[in-house]
Amino acid sequence: MERVPMTKKGAEELKQLLAYLKGEKRHQIVSTIESARAHGDLSENAEYHAAKEEQGMNEGRITDIEDKLARAHVIDPATIKAEKVVFGATVELIDVNQGTEVTYQIVGVDEADIEKGMVSITSPIARAMIGKEEGDLAVVQAPGGEREFEIQAIEYV
Q1: 104: β partners
Q2: What are the Transcription elongation factor GreA/GreB N-terminal domain coordinates in residue numbering (predicted)?
Q3: Side-chain-side CA neighbours of residue 145 (13 Å)
Q4: 131-145 pLDDT, tens per residue?
Q5: Which of 46, 91, 106, 139 has its CA 20 to 30 Å from the CA of residue 116?
Q6: Per-residue pLDDT tens for 39-85?
């Protein structure tokens, strides 16, 4: 059974989503199915079939989240004491090619959100940073070509 790394915050957000899907969302779908069933002939009832499909997708999502939480390896970045970049690190970088500064936190796959500066542990940028120290260059094989980032600061918060 492969462990799924995630931050403490990411695990809490997944638990909240699971509670919503199992509670409020399930009840909404059941209500929609009951309403559609009242319209009569189910074989030609598009609303009923759409609601049943939504129910199946919701149950699949619930199963997926429960599986990930069962296999979760929850890591609290605030407890990490490391000089090198590891999972949970917030890394301040300078894009050597463009001269711009960016900050990324390395998080689990389900937590990744580039708009919030959170990159997945499986992303090319995260893989390039892992094991590096302040002052090192991280070379990323991007679709547009090779990019270099200089690591300015590493913190665990």
Answers
A1: 91
A2: 4-74
A3: 1
A4: 999 999 999 988 888
A5: 139
A6: 877 778 889 999 999 999 999 999 999 999 999 999 999 999 999 99
75, 121 contact by CB (below 8 A): no
Residue ranges of the chain assigned to CATH 1.10.287.180: 4-74
pTM score of the predicted model: 0.82
Name the segment(s) of the chain with CATH classification 3.10.50.30. Answer: 77-155
Residue written as token pair 């296999």? 71
Q: Contact, 80 vs 86, CB < 8 A?
A: yes
Give 26's pLDDT tier (boundaries 50, 70, 90).
very high
% pLDDT > 70, the chain: 100
β-strand pairing of 118-120 with 90-95 = unpaired
User: In this predicted structure, what is the pLDDT of residue 97?
Assistant: 86
| Residue 147 to residue 46: CA distance in whole angstroms | 50
Q: Of 3.40.50.2300, 3.10.50.30, 3.30.450.40, 3.40.50.300, which CATH number belongs to 77-155?
A: 3.10.50.30
